[in-house]
Design brief:
By secondary structure, the protein is mostly helical. The chain has ten helices and two strands, in the order H-H-H-H-E-E-H-H-H-H-H-H. Strand 1 and strand 2 form a beta hairpin.
Length: 363
């Protein structure tokens, strides 16, 4: 099956958009059903102690993931970033895994809340017993939608890999070493974006589900969010502008980030903390492990990027629209060449023409 090149881009974006639209609608339905089945007589204290806030947090995080997925897809197709397109297919697989985790965690939470009595009322429960029956089919449908569209995404990704690879070849040329340098840069920039998502996903769950607003750790964790965003932005600037001192500083920050997530991961499974993390341990563990892996791979790739400093790559990545700028330059160069050839064929640069000039003369 052969489609015009723009059609593969539209097909990939269409798949991601369709998945986002369907999943957002289904997640909204699950959220509505959950809120509808919560007993209206529940107190704010019991709402917090019974972790009824956990399920809305999972659903909101999934919605954020789909919006992030859609935005990253648009960015990847606009920049013709092959690595980011491949990363999005892997990210979609991670969403499939998380959808399975979501199914299990929501079932556990619903069973728990359906057996929890209201304070001072032994005849009524926090959550209606029919809630799970109304949400189960929808949660299964979410898994199926992500799985089916994920397979189609991998096929279209292969087609885009061929298309984008040819475009980069025309823009950068046949220099193998330069292409390897550009590949390392693309991988690192893509990793930074996914680092940001998984870090924010972990932090939001940790703050909303686990921590109490009166805890000192709550304020410290919230303060880490803007600091992390600034650090990632500075990392992008350091690598893009080949600033060695800033890159070294960022490398140390990434090491500190890995230590932070290792501490959180170990603490979740300490006997004294087990009850505190029951509501979100599987989800937090998944996000912590993925973030640790991404930080490790980012640091390794950062070393490769630093080794490529001052080797001619900087002009290609001077701005966010480097690929488009190079494509425009390539098109204008080819246009000028065609124009010169046209002038030659029309006699505008023939030896008999008044404006003739020998191109290879000594002057």
């Amino acid at each position: 099956m052969q489609l015009p090149r723009p059609s593969w881009k539209l097909a990939f974006f269409g798949l991601v958009f369709a998945e986002a639209a369907v999943v957002l609608a289904l997640e909204g339905y699950v959220f509505g059903k959950f809120q509808y089945n919560i007993n209206s007589k529940i107190s704010s204290e019991q709402r917090k102690s019974s972790n009824t806030v956990a399920i809305p947090t999972y659903l909101a995080l999934f919605i954020f993931a789909e919006v992030f997925h859609l935005g990253m897809t648009f960015d990847a197709l606009r920049m013709k970033n092959t690595i980011q397109v491949i990363g999005l297919c892997i990210f979609n697989t991670a969403l499939l895994v998380y959808a399975g985790i979501q199914y299990e965690q929501i079932k556990t939470a619903v069973d728990y809340l359906s057996s929890w009595h209201l304070d001072g009322d032994m005849e009524n429960y926090v959550l209606s017993g029919s809630a799970w029956g109304e949400m189960r089919a929808t949660l299964i449908a979410i898994i199926c939608v992500i799985g089916v569209i994920g397979f189609a995404m991998f096929y279209v990704c292969y087609k885009l890999y061929i298309d984008f690879g040819w475009s980069i070849y025309k823009q950068i040329g046949a220099d193998i070493e330069m292409k390897h340098r550009y590949l390392a840069y693309q991988i690192f920039m893509t990793l930074l974006k996914f680092d940001a998502f998984f870090f924010l996903g972990f932090t939001v769950q940790f703050c909303v589900i686990i921590l109490n607003r009166k805890d000192v750790e709550f304020g410290l964790t919230i303060a880490v969010i803007p600091c992390t965003v600034v650090a990632l932005f500075l990392t992008m600037i350091a690598i893009r502008n080949e600033i060695k001192s800033a890159t070294a500083l960022v490398f140390v920050v990434f090491l500190a980030g890995m230590a932070y997530f290792m501490f959180k991961l170990i603490r979740m499974y300490q006997p004294s903390q087990v009850s505190k993390y029951v509501a979100a341990r599987k989800s937090l563990t998944t996000f912590a492990v993925i973030t640790l892996f991404l930080l490790l791979v980012s640091e390794i790739n950062m070393v490769f990027c630093a080794r490529n400093f001052n080797k001619g790559l900087k002009p290609y990545i001077a701005s966010q629209s480097s690929i488009r700028r190079l494509w425009t330059r390539s098109s204008s160069d080819s246009g000028e060449a065609e124009k010169l050839e046209g002038e030659d064929s029309m006699g505008g640069n023939s030896p008999s023409s008044p404006g003739y000039r020998r191109r290879f003369s000594l002057d």
